[in-house]
Specification:
Blueprint: E1 3-7, E2 10-13, E3 18-25, E4 33-39, E5 46-52, E6 58-60, E7 68-73, E8 78-83, E9 92-99, E10 116-117, E11 121-126
Parallel strand pairs: 2-11
Antiparallel strand pairs: 1-3, 3-8, 4-5, 4-9, 5-6, 7-8, 9-10, 9-11
């Protein structure tokens, strides 16, 4: 069983940066993948980024490539999302999620492949 707690959200001006953290309690197996999703008011939840726990291979949605970086610290059981050059359209509640299986590419963008979810942290980007 895995519990996830997000932190680091807040209010930032366009062009600014934030770093989100997701602390996991419980065992993270080498086959797991950790992902970030976001949901804006009135919109469906969408995939942002994911990383394999064992090898650290990352996958991003096109909208954030070159601006966001996902990383992990195995010793701290924590995954991060560094968000740079933020845009108003990045405004959303950001959720951390864990998949119990290794995945690649499109597989990681499907929220149905994630078994564990955090409560979310609000990110607001002003113009």
């Amino acid at each position: 069983q895995v519990q996830l707690v997000e932190s680091g959200g807040g209010l930032v001006q366009a062009g600014g940066s934030l770093r989100l953290s997701c602390a996991a309690s419980g065992r993270i197996f080498s086959t797991y993948s950790l992902g970030w999703f976001r949901q804006a008011p009135g919109k469906e939840r969408e995939f942002v980024a994911a990383i394999s726990w064992s090898g650290g291979s990352a996958y991003y949605v096109d909208a954030v490539k070159g601006r966001f970086t996902i990383s992990r610290d195995s010793a701290k059981n924590t995954v991060y999302l560094q968000m740079n050059s933020l845009k108003p359209e990045d405004t959303a509640v950001y959720y951390c999620a864990a998949s119990t299986q290794y995945g690649r590419g499109r597989y990681l963008s499907d929220m149905n492949n994630y078994a564990y979810w955090g409560q979310g942290t609000q990110v607001t980007v002003s113009s």
